[in-house]
From TrEMBL:
SUPFAM superfamilies: Creatinase/aminopeptidase (SSF55920), Creatinase/prolidase N-terminal domain (SSF53092). The keyword Metal-binding applies. It comes from Magnetospirillum sulfuroxidans. It comes from the Bacteria. One of its GO terms (molecular function) is aminopeptidase activity. Residues 10-140 form the Creatinase N-terminal domain. Residues 534-592 form the Peptidase M24 C-terminal domain. This is Aminopeptidase P family protein. Keywords: Aminopeptidase, Hydrolase, Metal-binding, Protease.
Length: 593
């Protein structure tokens, strides 16, 4: 844990350290060496310095001013956690760090950064900004913030275990050899793997180094012949794991990573979106040809095999049982707050087979807290669920056979006309994605507007993506597939990919609405006369949508039929798995519109 609140002494100590190193300023990203969404306590530098606990952000500290940059998910949260007297608060899209630096830097300034915490692309963008201002971007040999973080926790060191073939579906040897063929086809001699999720998928291993994602933090080098060099703390390794990895995987302590990088030859793939600048620099210093492209594991990992898809379906059935038991319990309770609701849902999930924990911190937002997209209840913000308000509950779990993520927005003792109308507009977008048919090669960005169309027609929108990829007992936020506006959702959707379908609407200070289910991309029959193979979505999540919030007159016949069919499926598949009282509630909650 990070001890103590962020205070003026921390930024003051950092400024003194920077001055001693001859630096004008320093960049503090919310990142570790792997660019992961969840980072260990030892890498939570942004939270230690500023108090901001969101999953994306960056701070810049100069001698005379400082700023924190966040995206649209955290515009409300950042104001609650960060002292605006010490940090200017900026939206990283509308007021990007490049623009702020361009105005704040002057000729002769020296801006420091940690090359292990920034990608090569990020570092190049910062270099150009500094150059235009007449300043210098300085790669620090060690992180100056770490020098003043005196009670910094040690790096995690938890055991690594094999992920059984009955859940993985393909052996690690099969995956390594398939990637070897892929590398050779691209005329590559190897690839550097810096994303622990890729390494976990490739080698069929799992760990417990970070919260919510079963990852062992590590680096790896994949060679053209399919051999792998794995860089991991020896304390994490046991004889059973060595046997599982086999002769094709050589183990090294992390300290050997840069030495082995420098020994590579030929043309080496490095993931442009996750690899640290430090890795790229080591290779370039040795005149090794660097192929800056995508992680070779990303697409194979995203396209789930039949065993993984079967596991996802089974996990979602168990998750639905827990969610439906919770919803029935919630409706019968009169005195519940956000924290109690989240805890009760956890207890229901923990009773399920193969349960291994949550897949992210539960977002339980009552009333105005629901408008904070990535809200997390705390003793200071915990609210009771009051009649006449909406309750937004976004939660998920990790099971050995799958990862879940579901959001439901519920009426607590009724809701107003505005809330019901906007809930129905969000529902129309959800149904539009769920029922979409699209030709092979279609990207998530091409589908995104389907989810927003009904909202746009009323002058409304939401400031987050419509869908993210989901792993198989891995990260609940997995790339490269997404459903979002142009740029982030530019990867064509392929059979076996799992993505979320989660349009929303948020009225600051009042309420939030989100309806989320996970869907799997599948082939669909080609209509008579059709010329291009079609894809569609199989909805995996089996949790009722609150009928009390639906304005039926705003739905067309097809949308009403979809709701009734979806609820009928839930009733048929989950009804036999719950007790009589819960089944009675479920029948009422899934009655035809």
């Amino acid at each position: 844990m990070i001890s103590g609140p962020a205070g003026p002494e921390r930024i003051g100590d950092l400024r003194k350290e920077l001055a001693a190193r001859g630096l004008t300023g320093f960049i503090v990203p919310r990142a570790d060496e792997h660019q992961g969404e969840y980072v260990p306590a030892s890498a939570q530098r942004l939270a230690w310095l500023t108090g901001f606990t969101g999953s994306a952000g960056m701070a810049v500290v100069l001698h005379g001013r400082a700023a924190i940059f966040i995206d649209g998910r955290y515009t409300l949260q950042v104001t609650q956690e960060v002292d605006a007297a010490r940090f200017e608060i900026r939206h990283m899209v509308e007021q990007p760090v490049q623009r702020w630096l361009g105005q704040a830097l002057t000729a002769g300034d020296r801006l420091g950064f940690d090359p292990w915490l920034h990608t090569a692309e990020q570092a190049e963008t910062l270099r150009q900004v500094c150059e235009r201002a007449g300043a210098e971007l300085v790669a620090c040999a060690d992180n100056p913030l770490d020098a003043v973080w005196h009670d910094r926790p040690p790096p995690p060191c938890r055991p690594v275990v094999a992920h059984p073939l009955r859940f993985a579906g393909r052996s690690a040897t099969e995956k390594r050899l398939a990637l070897s063929d892929s590398l050779q086809a691209d005329h590559l001699d190897g690839a550097v793997l810096t994303d622990p999720a890729s390494i976990a998928w490739l080698l069929n291993i799992r760990g417990d180094d970070v919260a919510y994602v079963p990852l062992p933090l590590s680096f790896a080098i994949l060679h053209g012949d399919g051999g792998v060099e794995l860089f991991m703390d020896p304390a994490k390794i046991n004889p059973a794991l060595v046997d599982h990895l086999g002769d094709g995987v050589r183990l090294f302590p992390p300290a050997h990573f840069t030495t082995r990088l420098a020994a590579l030859r030929g043309r080496i793939r490095v993931d442009k979106s996750t690899a640290p600048m430090a890795v790229v620099q080591v290779l370039r210093d040795k005149d090794i040809t660097v192929d800056m492209a995508g992680d070779p594991c990303a697409l194979p990992k995203a396209c789930k095999n039949p065993v993984e898809l079967a596991g996802a379906r089974a996990a979602h059935v168990r998750d639905a049982v827990a969610m439906i038991r919770f919803l029935a319990w919630l409706e019968a309770e009169d005195d519940v707050d956000e924290a109690a609701a989240a805890e009760r849902l956890y207890q229901f999930r923990a009773e399920g087979e193969h349960f291994r924990g949550l897949s992210f911190p539960t977002i339980a937002g009552a009333g105005p807290n629901g408008a904070i997209v990535h809200y997390r209840s705390s003793p200071a913000t915990n609210r009771k669920l009051l009649p006449g308000q909406l309750f937004l509950l976004d939660s998920g779990a990790q099971y050995l056979d799958g990862t879940t993520d579901v959001t439901r927005t519920m009426a607590v003792g009724g809701a107003g006309a505005e809330e019901c109308e906007r809930f129905t507009l969000v529902l129309k977008g959800h149904i539009a994605i769920a029922t979409a048919l699209f030709p092979q090669g279609t990207t998530g960005s091409q589908l995104d507007m389907l989810a927003r169309r009904a909202l746009w027609a009323r002058g409304l929108d939401y400031d987050h993506g419509t869908g993210h990829g989901v792993g198989s007992y891995l990260s609940v936020h997995e790339g490269p597939q997404r459903i979002s506006k142009v740029g982030a959702g530019a990867v064509p959707l392929r059979v076996g990919m799992v993505v979320s379908n989660e349009p929303g609407y948020y009225k600051a200070g009042a309420y939030g609405i989100r309806i989320e289910a996970l869907v799997a991309v599948e082939e669909r029959p080609l209509p008579a006369g059709g010329e291009r193979p079609l894809l569609g979505f199989e909805t995996l999540t089996l949790v009722p949508i609150d009928r009390r919030l639906i304005v039926v007159d705003l739905l067309d016949a097809g949308e009403r039929a979809w709701i009734d069919c979806y609820h009928g499926r839930i009733r048929d598949e989950i009804g036999p798995l719950v007790d009589d009282d819960t089944r009675t509630w479920l029948c009422r909650a899934t009655a035809s519109l």
